[in-house]
Amino acid sequence: MKIKNILFNLTIIAVSVLALSCDKDDESGKPKITIIELGYDNSKTVVAGTELHLDVEIEAPNNIKTVKLSIHGESSTAIWEFEQVYTEYEGKKNIDFHKHIDIPAEAAVGHYHLHIEVTDLKGYSAEAEDEIEITAAK
Ligand SMILES: [Zn+2]
Ligand SMILES: [Zn+2]
To answer: In whole angstroms, how far apart are CA 85 and each of 16, 23, 74, 88, 116?
Structure first.
């Protein structure tokens, strides 16, 4: 009888540990995106015809599947858009996403949006966005 009780208690403990770890997974499982630098010295500006320096820290407890980067203009005169899906980080938990994006000289000067979307191997996704100004070449 005593042994039966202990076994029963152990089962309850095991079940609640499992339940707890599942909950924890749901709460903190989403990827975390931190934009560290957008433009040199985090200036949030880039000159048309040069490269945009981008430094982003990505943490994905469930491992990264894809990282999607897109840049689009806010005005109808913005003639340049960028979109790329990066798959080379698949399986990684923590990366420094450091990219240099060519901004064509003919990109319209003005206000742009930058979006980063990370999807993990469990299907969770997270998005971060920021704003950037493309300025005229001097
Ligand atoms: Zn750089
Ligand atoms: Zn946008």
So the answer is: 39, 30, 21, 9, 10
Residues that place a CB less than 5 A from ion ligand 1: 53
Instruction: Determine the distance separating the centroid of ligand 2 and the alpha carbon of 70, expressed in angstroms.
Output: 8
pLDDT at 1 over 60: no
Ligand 1 center to 41 CA (angstroms)? 10
Q: Which amino acid belongs to residue 129?
A: E
In this predicted structure, the answer to whether residue 20 has a pLDDT above a threshold of 60 is no
The burial of 108, by beta-carbon neighbours within 10 Å (0-12 exposed, 13-18 middle, 19 or more buried), is given as middle
Ligand 1 center–CA 37 separation, angstroms: 9
